């Protein structure tokens, strides 16, 4: 017998986790929509934050992937010593020394992804 959306919500491993997978979020949103309750009442009943349910509803409705940059390929460049070539979905190609600060690299990647959306 198939599980109802409410049964799926009760199977989530930890509702207070910092991150949900898209599958877990879809289960929560489906259970909310099937409940007929307001987001506030549903969230209180399930022990969730209403903002989180609403945010996932929008995220799933818009079908937008996570804002984190997705790498297409990561491989060392043979012609340059200690350099890594990073090819992004946007077509940008970065050549970065292996010792490049990861926090700075993340900022650069976020800027490139943001500019690609313009």
What does this structure look like?
The chain is an alpha+beta fold and 118 residues long. It has two domains: 5-62, no CATH class; 71-116, no CATH class. It is 47% helix and 14% strand. The chain has five helices and three strands; from the N terminus they run ααααβββα. The protein has helices spanning 5-10, 22-35, 39-46, 50-62, 102-116, and strands at residues 71-76, 83-88, 93-97. It has a three-stranded antiparallel β-sheet, with no helix packed on it. Strand 1 (71-76) and strand 2 form a beta hairpin. Helix 2 packs across helix 4 (50-62) and helix 3 (39-46) crosses helix 4. The longest helix is centred in the last third of the chain and has 15 residues, at 102-116. It is elongated and about 60 Å long. The termini are far apart. The mean pLDDT is 76.
Summarize the structure.
The chain has helices at residues 5-10, 22-35, 39-46, 50-62, 102-116; strands at 71-76, 83-88, 93-97. It has 118 residues and is an alpha+beta fold. The chain folds into two domains: 5-62, no CATH class; 71-116, no CATH class.
